[in-house]
Amino acid sequence: MFANPDLVRWENKYRSGTNPLPVEPKGEAELVAWFFRQQGPGKKTSGLAMDVACGRGANALYLASLGYKVVAVDGALAGVKSCQWSASHYALAVHPVVMDLQ
Questions:
Q1: What pLDDT band is residue 50 in, cutting at 50, 70 and 90?
Q2: DSSP letters for 74-85
Q3: Ordered domains of the chain (ranges, CATH)
């Protein structure tokens, strides 16, 4: 199915059924800290952002919740579908793309 063995591993992980839906729009600590250094607390912004290797999309959803339009890219279809479902659930501007990043 996949030429890239890493994609097989990630696809299996995301399909395992242990991941609750929807994904919460909570960014990783480093992303949250970066945003507050750039914008300050409590501020919304606009513009375009890209989350490369987005997985299930928590960072993409977080950026979208701040006002960015986000392109979320990952090679695992199951992860991107989860991101897309969550973006729809929260009505966030996330545009998922499935692409082998190698």
A1: very high
A2: ES-HHHHHHHHH
A3: 5-98 (3.40.50.150)
